[in-house]
Amino acid sequence: MPKYLLGSVNESVVPDLEYQHKFTMMPPNASLLINPLQFSDEGNYIVKVNIQGNGTLSSSQKIQVTVDDPVMKPVVQFYPASGAVEYVGNITLTCQVAGGTRLVYQWRKNGKPVCINSSHSLSPENNTLWIAPVTKEDVGNYSCLVSNPVSEMESDIIMPTIYYGPYGLQVNSDKGLKVGEVFTVDLGEAILFDCSADSYPPNTYSWIQRSDNTTHVIQHGPRLEVASEKVAQKTTDYMCCAYNNITGKRDETHFTIIITSVGHEDALGDFGIYEFVTFPDASGVPRVGFPSG
Protein backbone atom coordinates (compact mmCIF):
# COMPACT_ATOMS: atom_id res chain seq x y z
CA MET A 1 0.00 0.00 0.00
CA PRO A 2 1.51 3.38 -1.00
CA LYS A 3 2.34 5.78 1.81
CA TYR A 4 0.84 9.28 1.83
CA LEU A 5 3.59 11.92 1.87
CA LEU A 6 1.89 15.27 1.39
CA GLY A 7 -0.80 16.99 -0.60
CA SER A 8 -2.06 20.40 -1.61
CA VAL A 9 -5.60 21.76 -1.51
CA ASN A 10 -6.27 25.22 -2.87
CA GLU A 11 -2.53 26.03 -2.66
CA SER A 12 -2.39 24.93 0.97
CA VAL A 13 0.10 22.11 1.61
CA VAL A 14 -1.10 19.31 3.84
CA PRO A 15 1.96 17.27 4.92
CA ASP A 16 2.08 13.97 6.69
CA LEU A 17 3.52 14.58 10.15
CA GLU A 18 5.99 11.70 9.78
CA TYR A 19 7.52 13.08 6.57
CA GLN A 20 7.00 16.84 6.85
CA HIS A 21 10.71 17.55 7.48
CA LYS A 22 11.87 15.46 4.51
CA PHE A 23 9.42 16.14 1.70
CA THR A 24 8.52 19.60 0.46
CA MET A 25 6.17 20.64 -2.32
CA MET A 26 7.69 23.38 -4.46
CA PRO A 27 5.45 25.94 -6.21
CA PRO A 28 4.29 26.75 -8.80
CA ASN A 29 4.04 23.29 -10.36
CA ALA A 30 3.90 21.05 -7.28
CA SER A 31 7.45 19.71 -7.66
CA LEU A 32 8.51 17.35 -4.89
CA LEU A 33 11.80 18.07 -3.09
CA ILE A 34 13.41 15.20 -1.15
CA ASN A 35 16.03 16.45 1.28
CA PRO A 36 18.19 14.83 2.54
CA LEU A 37 18.17 12.06 -0.06
CA GLN A 38 18.95 8.57 1.27
CA PHE A 39 19.13 5.09 -0.22
CA SER A 40 15.87 4.25 1.57
CA ASP A 41 14.14 6.91 -0.55
CA GLU A 42 14.57 4.81 -3.68
CA GLY A 43 11.31 3.49 -5.11
CA ASN A 44 8.17 4.40 -7.02
CA TYR A 45 6.42 7.69 -6.36
CA ILE A 46 2.85 8.49 -7.46
CA VAL A 47 1.46 11.96 -8.02
CA LYS A 48 -2.32 12.24 -8.26
CA VAL A 49 -4.22 15.30 -9.45
CA ASN A 50 -7.94 15.81 -8.72
CA ILE A 51 -9.88 18.57 -10.48
CA GLN A 52 -13.29 19.36 -9.10
CA GLY A 53 -15.98 21.01 -11.20
CA ASN A 54 -19.08 19.47 -12.68
CA GLY A 55 -17.88 16.19 -11.27
CA THR A 56 -14.34 15.21 -10.40
CA LEU A 57 -11.57 14.50 -12.89
CA SER A 58 -8.45 12.73 -11.70
CA SER A 59 -5.16 11.62 -13.18
CA SER A 60 -2.05 9.97 -11.76
CA GLN A 61 1.54 9.38 -12.83
CA LYS A 62 4.10 6.95 -11.46
CA ILE A 63 7.76 8.00 -11.25
CA GLN A 64 10.65 5.68 -10.39
CA VAL A 65 13.42 7.24 -8.32
CA THR A 66 16.83 5.59 -8.06
CA VAL A 67 19.52 6.68 -5.62
CA ASP A 68 23.22 6.22 -6.37
CA ASP A 69 26.55 6.94 -4.77
CA PRO A 70 29.05 8.75 -7.03
CA VAL A 71 31.86 6.59 -8.41
CA MET A 72 35.21 6.84 -6.69
CA LYS A 73 38.39 6.81 -8.78
CA PRO A 74 39.20 3.25 -9.85
CA VAL A 75 42.61 1.61 -9.52
CA VAL A 76 43.95 -0.90 -12.06
CA GLN A 77 46.31 -3.70 -11.12
CA PHE A 78 47.89 -6.19 -13.50
CA TYR A 79 49.39 -9.62 -13.05
CA PRO A 80 52.09 -10.76 -13.40
CA ALA A 81 53.80 -7.52 -12.39
CA SER A 82 57.04 -8.73 -13.99
CA GLY A 83 55.40 -8.86 -17.44
CA ALA A 84 54.74 -11.59 -20.01
CA VAL A 85 56.51 -12.97 -23.08
CA GLU A 86 54.75 -12.71 -26.43
CA TYR A 87 52.83 -15.86 -27.49
CA VAL A 88 53.84 -17.54 -24.22
CA GLY A 89 52.50 -15.52 -21.27
CA ASN A 90 49.12 -14.13 -20.23
CA ILE A 91 48.16 -10.86 -18.51
CA THR A 92 45.27 -10.15 -16.14
CA LEU A 93 44.03 -6.58 -15.55
CA THR A 94 41.70 -5.93 -12.61
CA CYS A 95 39.73 -2.73 -11.98
CA GLN A 96 39.03 -1.96 -8.32
CA VAL A 97 36.61 0.73 -7.06
CA ALA A 98 36.26 1.64 -3.39
CA GLY A 99 32.85 3.32 -3.69
CA GLY A 100 29.86 3.74 -5.98
CA THR A 101 26.65 1.93 -6.88
CA ARG A 102 25.34 0.27 -10.04
CA LEU A 103 28.83 0.34 -11.55
CA VAL A 104 29.45 -0.13 -15.27
CA TYR A 105 33.02 -0.99 -16.34
CA GLN A 106 34.70 -0.22 -19.65
CA TRP A 107 38.29 -1.09 -20.55
CA ARG A 108 40.20 1.32 -22.76
CA LYS A 109 43.48 1.05 -24.66
CA ASN A 110 45.16 4.21 -25.94
CA GLY A 111 41.92 6.10 -25.25
CA LYS A 112 39.63 3.73 -27.20
CA PRO A 113 37.45 0.80 -26.03
CA VAL A 114 39.27 -2.55 -25.97
CA CYS A 115 38.09 -4.92 -28.70
CA ILE A 116 36.97 -8.28 -27.34
CA ASN A 117 38.19 -11.19 -29.47
CA SER A 118 39.61 -14.70 -29.14
CA SER A 119 42.56 -13.50 -27.04
CA HIS A 120 40.69 -10.83 -25.01
CA SER A 121 37.92 -11.81 -22.58
CA LEU A 122 36.02 -10.20 -19.69
CA SER A 123 34.64 -11.32 -16.35
CA PRO A 124 30.82 -11.30 -15.89
CA GLU A 125 30.91 -7.81 -14.37
CA ASN A 126 33.57 -6.60 -16.86
CA ASN A 127 35.88 -5.52 -14.05
CA THR A 128 38.59 -8.02 -15.08
CA LEU A 129 40.26 -8.21 -18.50
CA TRP A 130 42.22 -11.30 -19.55
CA ILE A 131 44.70 -11.25 -22.45
CA ALA A 132 45.83 -14.75 -23.39
CA PRO A 133 48.28 -15.01 -24.98
CA VAL A 134 49.82 -11.56 -25.24
CA THR A 135 51.30 -10.27 -28.49
CA LYS A 136 53.21 -7.20 -29.58
CA GLU A 137 49.88 -5.64 -30.67
CA ASP A 138 48.76 -5.65 -27.01
CA VAL A 139 51.44 -3.12 -26.05
CA GLY A 140 49.80 0.18 -25.07
CA ASN A 141 48.27 2.37 -22.37
CA TYR A 142 45.34 0.77 -20.55
CA SER A 143 42.74 2.37 -18.29
CA CYS A 144 39.42 1.48 -16.69
CA LEU A 145 36.41 3.80 -17.05
CA VAL A 146 33.72 3.25 -14.41
CA SER A 147 30.33 4.97 -14.55
CA ASN A 148 26.86 4.93 -13.04
CA PRO A 149 23.76 7.09 -13.65
CA VAL A 150 25.18 10.05 -11.70
CA SER A 151 28.96 10.06 -12.34
CA GLU A 152 31.98 8.49 -14.03
CA MET A 153 35.66 8.20 -13.17
CA GLU A 154 38.68 6.86 -15.06
CA SER A 155 41.74 5.20 -13.59
CA ASP A 156 45.32 6.28 -14.13
CA ILE A 157 46.97 4.83 -17.23
CA ILE A 158 49.09 1.72 -16.86
CA MET A 159 51.31 0.00 -19.42
CA PRO A 160 51.73 -3.74 -18.83
CA THR A 161 55.18 -5.08 -19.66
CA ILE A 162 55.17 -7.26 -22.78
CA TYR A 163 58.38 -8.78 -24.11
CA TYR A 164 58.59 -9.27 -27.89
CA GLY A 165 60.86 -9.27 -30.91
CA PRO A 166 63.15 -8.82 -32.66
CA TYR A 167 61.11 -7.68 -35.69
CA GLY A 168 62.05 -5.83 -38.88
CA LEU A 169 65.82 -6.16 -38.63
CA GLN A 170 67.63 -3.87 -41.08
CA VAL A 171 71.02 -2.30 -41.73
CA ASN A 172 71.48 1.29 -42.91
CA SER A 173 74.53 3.47 -43.53
CA ASP A 174 75.35 7.16 -43.46
CA LYS A 175 77.32 7.01 -46.72
CA GLY A 176 77.74 4.90 -49.80
CA LEU A 177 75.25 3.73 -52.39
CA LYS A 178 72.85 0.96 -51.38
CA VAL A 179 71.25 -1.29 -53.97
CA GLY A 180 69.35 -4.14 -52.36
CA GLU A 181 71.71 -5.66 -49.82
CA VAL A 182 74.86 -4.30 -51.48
CA PHE A 183 76.67 -1.15 -50.34
CA THR A 184 79.14 0.48 -52.74
CA VAL A 185 81.87 2.54 -51.04
CA ASP A 186 84.72 4.59 -52.49
CA LEU A 187 88.24 3.58 -51.54
CA GLY A 188 89.52 5.62 -48.60
CA GLU A 189 86.04 6.41 -47.32
CA ALA A 190 84.95 5.42 -43.80
CA ILE A 191 81.35 4.27 -43.54
CA LEU A 192 79.16 3.84 -40.45
CA PHE A 193 76.50 1.12 -40.34
CA ASP A 194 73.48 1.01 -38.00
CA CYS A 195 71.66 -2.22 -37.19
CA SER A 196 68.15 -1.91 -35.75
CA ALA A 197 65.11 -4.05 -34.97
CA ASP A 198 61.87 -3.54 -33.02
CA SER A 199 62.18 -5.39 -29.73
CA TYR A 200 61.55 -5.18 -25.99
CA PRO A 201 63.79 -5.26 -24.13
CA PRO A 202 66.32 -3.77 -26.58
CA ASN A 203 68.32 -6.34 -28.53
CA THR A 204 71.96 -7.17 -28.18
CA TYR A 205 73.76 -6.90 -31.52
CA SER A 206 76.83 -8.59 -32.97
CA TRP A 207 78.59 -8.03 -36.30
CA ILE A 208 80.10 -10.92 -38.24
CA GLN A 209 82.51 -10.70 -41.18
CA ARG A 210 82.99 -13.44 -43.73
CA SER A 211 86.23 -13.74 -45.66
CA ASP A 212 88.10 -16.68 -47.21
CA ASN A 213 85.14 -18.96 -46.36
CA THR A 214 85.51 -18.25 -42.65
CA THR A 215 83.40 -16.11 -40.31
CA HIS A 216 84.31 -14.30 -37.14
CA VAL A 217 82.69 -11.76 -34.83
CA ILE A 218 84.30 -8.36 -35.31
CA GLN A 219 82.20 -6.17 -33.00
CA HIS A 220 79.29 -6.02 -30.55
CA GLY A 221 76.70 -3.25 -30.38
CA PRO A 222 74.29 -1.59 -32.82
CA ARG A 223 76.97 0.30 -34.79
CA LEU A 224 79.85 -0.76 -37.00
CA GLU A 225 82.43 1.50 -38.64
CA VAL A 226 84.29 0.19 -41.67
CA ALA A 227 87.43 1.93 -42.95
CA SER A 228 87.50 0.93 -46.62
CA GLU A 229 91.28 1.25 -46.96
CA LYS A 230 91.71 -1.41 -44.26
CA VAL A 231 89.48 -3.98 -45.96
CA ALA A 232 91.65 -6.66 -47.53
CA GLN A 233 89.11 -7.69 -50.17
CA LYS A 234 87.23 -5.41 -52.52
CA THR A 235 84.07 -7.45 -51.92
CA THR A 236 83.33 -8.49 -48.34
CA ASP A 237 80.24 -10.09 -46.80
CA TYR A 238 78.92 -9.00 -43.40
CA MET A 239 76.09 -10.05 -41.13
CA CYS A 240 74.28 -8.29 -38.28
CA CYS A 241 72.68 -10.51 -35.62
CA ALA A 242 70.03 -9.28 -33.15
CA TYR A 243 69.17 -11.26 -30.03
CA ASN A 244 66.49 -10.71 -27.36
CA ASN A 245 67.65 -12.37 -24.16
CA ILE A 246 64.11 -12.44 -22.66
CA THR A 247 62.14 -13.89 -25.57
CA GLY A 248 65.10 -16.03 -26.63
CA LYS A 249 64.53 -15.07 -30.27
CA ARG A 250 67.15 -13.92 -32.75
CA ASP A 251 67.26 -12.56 -36.28
CA GLU A 252 70.03 -11.83 -38.75
CA THR A 253 70.51 -9.92 -41.97
CA HIS A 254 73.29 -10.20 -44.56
CA PHE A 255 74.85 -7.47 -46.67
CA THR A 256 77.86 -6.98 -48.93
CA ILE A 257 80.35 -4.11 -49.15
CA ILE A 258 82.05 -3.42 -52.49
CA ILE A 259 85.09 -1.12 -52.42
CA THR A 260 85.46 0.86 -55.65
CA SER A 261 88.36 2.99 -56.89
CA VAL A 262 87.92 6.74 -57.18
CA GLY A 263 86.86 7.73 -60.72
CA HIS A 264 90.02 9.56 -61.87
CA GLU A 265 92.27 6.69 -60.84
CA ASP A 266 90.62 4.48 -63.47
CA ALA A 267 91.69 6.96 -66.15
CA LEU A 268 95.41 6.81 -65.29
CA GLY A 269 95.98 4.02 -67.82
CA ASP A 270 94.94 6.35 -70.65
CA PHE A 271 97.69 8.87 -69.91
CA GLY A 272 100.70 8.85 -72.33
CA ILE A 273 102.73 10.77 -74.99
CA TYR A 274 100.86 11.68 -78.14
CA GLU A 275 102.41 13.06 -81.42
CA PHE A 276 100.32 15.16 -83.77
CA VAL A 277 101.43 15.01 -87.47
CA THR A 278 100.08 17.13 -90.33
CA PHE A 279 100.30 16.26 -94.01
CA PRO A 280 98.57 17.78 -97.05
CA ASP A 281 95.95 15.95 -99.08
CA ALA A 282 95.27 16.36 -102.77
CA SER A 283 93.19 19.47 -102.20
CA GLY A 284 96.05 21.14 -100.41
CA VAL A 285 94.15 21.32 -97.11
CA PRO A 286 96.26 20.03 -94.22
CA ARG A 287 94.95 17.03 -92.30
CA VAL A 288 95.78 15.92 -88.80
CA GLY A 289 96.72 12.32 -88.21
CA PHE A 290 97.42 10.17 -85.16
CA PRO A 291 100.14 7.56 -85.25
CA SER A 292 98.84 4.05 -84.70
CA GLY A 293 99.92 2.21 -81.58
UniProtKB/TrEMBL annotation:
A Gene Ontology BP annotation from the UniProt entry: centrosome cycle
Subcellular location: Cytoplasm; Endomembrane system
Membrane-topology descriptor: Single-pass type I membrane protein
Source domain of life: Eukaryota
Entry-linked InterPro entries: HEPACAM_domain (IPR052280), Ig-like_dom (IPR007110), Ig-like_dom_sf (IPR036179), Ig-like_fold (IPR013783), Ig_sub (IPR003599), Ig_sub2 (IPR003598)
Pfam family name, one: Ig_3
Signal peptide span: none
Primary location class: cytoplasm
Listed GO CC annotations: centrosome; Golgi apparatus; midbody; spindle
Keyword entries, A-Z: Cell cycle, Cytoplasm, Disulfide bond, Glycoprotein, Immunoglobulin domain, Membrane, Signal, Transmembrane, Transmembrane helix
Transmembrane helix listed as a keyword: yes
Domain Ig-like: 74-158, 160-256
Protein name (Swiss-Prot/TrEMBL): HEPACAM family member 2
UniProt source species: Cricetulus griseus
